[in-house]
């Protein structure tokens, strides 16, 4: 009897895969969020570059346009989450990026040909395709990421949401005010997505075993680590639909994610309208102020990643305590900040921006606090689980602008915005309260492999010096 010992390399192809996932999230979110700023320039040419067309839209038509991608996202997520779990995420992500990029490039032409009605239909189709992105990202992450590296690599991937929002706000505002005009807000991320697709086609792989660039030591490091939670290679358990839909830990997680989506999507979509209505700044200043909270959010995301890594490795904090503590901060601090924003005076720009920064920055902790809980509950069906919960999150993205379109008939009326912010605060508080009481961070029995339930204790194998993780593969020689 003898053993081969595989030490996981500090840098490898798995990090390249996560970098691709990060940039994929960044570009697709930017293609979705650029409309939040571009719609201000499209409907008010004097706020940006007056040399480009201006379209007259009512507040309700603006709300329909902003919500249209989320209508599409609600439909596709379950199907694409299932397909990615069964057949891998590489080609699905490639198709998603190519289609959404081409739609983004064609958006100005669509608006000129068919007005907001045709734009609504095209953005609906774009959202239909975009909806599969997050399930695919988590499916791919589960195939490449050892559990001990999930907080670091998964948190890095999730910051693509922050970078995409910054790109969608700040770059769109700067481009709209430049000589290129507001159409460039759609052209630039679209062409960048085409470049990403070409690189992904060459370097992307569904799993370590399919990669032609990975070293033997890194491949065995990943595969042996994943065997602890995903079972032997080649297993393809049937999807336990009934058990998933009756699982209390997952239902609580889905409700928590929906409550967080209500706040995050509202802030992403409505901050430019809020600043424009209350403070009346130009499109460039509006875009930079709108992006500021998400710049702070990006920095705080990396802070949460380092904090989680330190607490789990050096302080041996249990996973449930880590997840629930960070998620409580990510839910209840924004709730308090939105209550304060509701009562800040209209002349206090600094106070309003500080409240928005605090709310958005704290939300960044939800990636580690709750999003990675999908992988905790079921590594085999992480993409499918995220497809279900993200469908509910997209419903929040649909309902939120419609309700705000009804509640806020005058963008300059502070009392109407107050009702919106107070309602979101209540939803955030209740969502996290349920997660703290009933949430779980262990692999569920319906995950589909015996090894998943037998390997629940994470600290059975002692951690080697310098944070390296060692896995052994045993052979019997006769």
Please, could you describe this protein's structure?
The chain has 478 residues and is mostly helical. It has 18 helices and 2 strands. It has helices at residues 13-43, 59-87, 90-130, 133-144, 150-158, 160-177, 184-203, 216-230, 241-245, 248-279, 283-314, 319-343, 349-363, 366-371, 373-377, 382-407, 414-438, 450-454; strands at 2-7, 470-475. Strands 1-2 form a two-stranded antiparallel ribbon. The longest helix is centred in the first third of the chain and has 41 residues, at 90-130. It starts with a strand and ends with a strand. Mean pLDDT is 80; it is low at 1-6 and 449-478.
In brief, what are we looking at here?
The protein is an all-alpha fold and 478 residues long. It has helices at 13-43, 59-87, 90-130, 133-144, 150-158, 160-177, 184-203, 216-230, 241-245, 248-279, 283-314, 319-343, 349-363, 366-371, 373-377, 382-407, 414-438, 450-454, and strands at residues 2-7, 470-475.
């Amino acid at each position: 009897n003898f053993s081969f010992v595989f030490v996981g390399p500090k840098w490898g192809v798995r990090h390249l895969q996560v970098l691709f996932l990060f940039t994929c999230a960044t570009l697709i979110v930017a293609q979705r969020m650029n409309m939040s700023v571009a719609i201000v320039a499209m409907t008010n040419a004097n706020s940006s570059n007056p040399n480009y067309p201006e379209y007259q839209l009512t507040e309700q038509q603006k709300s329909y346009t902003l919500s249209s991608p989320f209508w599409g996202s609600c439909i596709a997520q379950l199907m694409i989450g299932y397909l990615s779990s069964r057949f891998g995420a590489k080609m699905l992500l490639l198709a998603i990026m190519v289609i959404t990029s081409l739609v983004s490039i064609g958006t100005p032409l669509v608006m000129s040909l068919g007005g907001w009605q045709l734009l609504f239909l095209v953005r609906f189709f774009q959202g239909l395709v975009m909806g599969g992105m997050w399930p695919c990202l988590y499916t791919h992450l589960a195939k490449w990421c050892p559990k001990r590296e999930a907080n670091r690599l998964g948190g890095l991937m999730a910051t693509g949401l922050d970078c995409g929002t910054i790109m969608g706000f700040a770059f769109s505002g700067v481009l709209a005010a430049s000589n290129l005009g507001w159409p460039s807000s759609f052209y630039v991320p679209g062409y960048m997505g085409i470049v990403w697709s070409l690189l992904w086609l060459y370097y992307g792989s569904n799993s370590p075993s399919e990669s032609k660039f990975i070293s033997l030591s890194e491949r065995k490091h990943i595969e042996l680590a994943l065997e602890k939670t995903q079972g032997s290679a080649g297993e393809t358990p049937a999807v336990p639909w009934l058990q998933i839909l009756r699982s209390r830990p997952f239902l609580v997680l889905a409700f928590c994610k929906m409550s967080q989506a209500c706040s995050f999507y509202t802030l992403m979509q409505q901050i430019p309208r809020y600043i424009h209505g209350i403070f009346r700044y130009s499109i460039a200043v509006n875009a930079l102020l709108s992006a500021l909270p998400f710049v702070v959010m990006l920095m705080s995301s990396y802070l949460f990643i380092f904090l989680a890594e330190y607490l789990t490795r050096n302080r041996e904090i249990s996973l449930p305590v880590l997840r629930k503590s960070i998620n409580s901060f990510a839910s209840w601090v924004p709730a308090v900040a939105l209550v304060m924003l509701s009562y800040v005076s209209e002349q206090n720009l600094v106070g309003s921006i500080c409240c928005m920064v605090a709310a958005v920055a704290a939300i960044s902790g939800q990636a580690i606090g709750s999003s990675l809980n999908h992988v905790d509950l079921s590594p085999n069906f992480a993409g499918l689980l995220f497809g279900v919960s993200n469908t509910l999150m997209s419903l929040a993205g649909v309902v939120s602008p419609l309700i705000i379109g009804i509640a806020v008939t005058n963008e300059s009326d502070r009392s109407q915005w107050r009702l919106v912010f107070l309602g979101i605060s209540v939803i955030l508080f209740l969502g996290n309260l349920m997660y703290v009481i009933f949430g779980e961070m262990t692999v569920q029995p319906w995950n589909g492999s015996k090894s998943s339930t037998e390997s629940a204790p994470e600290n059975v194998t002692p951690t080697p010096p310098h944070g390296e993780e060692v896995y052994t593969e045993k052979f019997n020689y006769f």
